[in-house]
Structures are given as structure tokens and as C-alpha cells.
Model the fold of this input.
Amino acid sequence: MNARFRIGRFLSVAGLYSGIVLSAGCAAEAEAGSMQERSIVPPNAQVARERADRNRIKGEEGAPVRVVEISDFQCPYCRQFHVQTLARLDSAYIQTGLVSYLWIAYANPGHPEAFVSTEAAYCAGAVGKFWPMHDLLFERQDEWSGAADPYALFVEYAAELDIDVESFGSCVRNSTLAPLVLRDYTSVTQAGISSTPYFILGDSVALRGAADFGTFSSAIDTLLVLKGGDSQPQ
Done:
């Protein structure tokens, strides 16, 4: 389950993490705070992309270890990881400042709703609600996956999250954030990754599949020691 690889293999994916912090920082940082509370998805596509890009990062940017999750909302094993492991990682490592966490999409072409569900999450991210939408999409995967009209369900989820449904619907319907989904896909496939969930820890450790909390904890703790830190999760 736990395999160690040369760092170079992951640069095209892990490097995307740095790109997000830098590209979003210029335009989005100036609007931090009030930006996060807005319910209307920006009509400017570039602004929406920058906000969505930034808001899928969880945790402190300066955390000693960064984790990249490559995932697919329609993947049952990704849902399994979400249900069984992510909350514990969040509590033990992300909220305590030990890990910064980035979600990257691999919209599997074999999953018919993978692309549009990612667009829905990113459109929510444009108003600072990527993670709440992320959680709903996994928790209700059985409801929208294979549904006759998943788009209508995504709009309902947006309403539950107090996102303006007209601007959200326009964002998804017009594929405003499709370039971000495609950028993810290109980065992931260029790195030779074609399965989900897949995790890159500290640019040098890879975990394949819905690894349990113990596996993650062992890998992260090892990386923390290598970084010279003495902090341990509570």
C-alpha cells in the first residue's frame, strides 16, 4: 500500500500545488475575507478559476508536510476514503497545522458524471465552498451518480450551501471551470497516474487506493521526523 518513489516522478502534479498558491495569490488574496462569504459565483471566468483553484487547498500553506489527493467524485473507493479516513486526517494533521492538503481531480473518462461533478465542486469553490460541496458529493454519491439529471441535484446541493443557484447553475452549465478540470487531468496523466484515489505525500511518498488512517499516520509521521519537526498529532 505504501510505496516510495523518486521525487522527480511527481513534480508535474506536486508542482501544481505551488502554482495554485502563487497564481491565486495575486488576484485572490486582495479579496480574502469578504470574498469567502459571497454566494454569487463571479461572472469573470478568470476570477472564478483563481478562487476555485485556491479554495481546494485545506490547511496552512506553511505546514511541514503537504498531501496531494488525486480523486474522482464518482469513484466508490474515493468515497470510501472520504467516509473512513479523511475526517481523522483533518482533525489530527490538517487542523493542527502539520499538513496542507490539496485536492486534484482525475475525471475518469469511464465515469460519465466525473467531469460535471468536478465542475460543480469547483463552481462552489469559486465562492469558498469547495469543501462543503466536496463532502456532499461524496456523501450523496449514490443519489447523483447515474441519475437522469445530476445537474438538477447539484443545483439543489448548491442551494443547501447558500450558494446563489442562478450563478452556480450558469457556472456549471456553461463549463466556466472546465479549463481547471482539464488542467488537473493533464497534470495527472502526464505524471503517469490513472487510478483513484492516489496520494502524494511530501513529494516523495505515494499511497494508492483508499488507505486507512494508520497507513497515512505512519507515512506522515515519518515525513515529519525527516523534516526535523517534533510535533505529533493529538
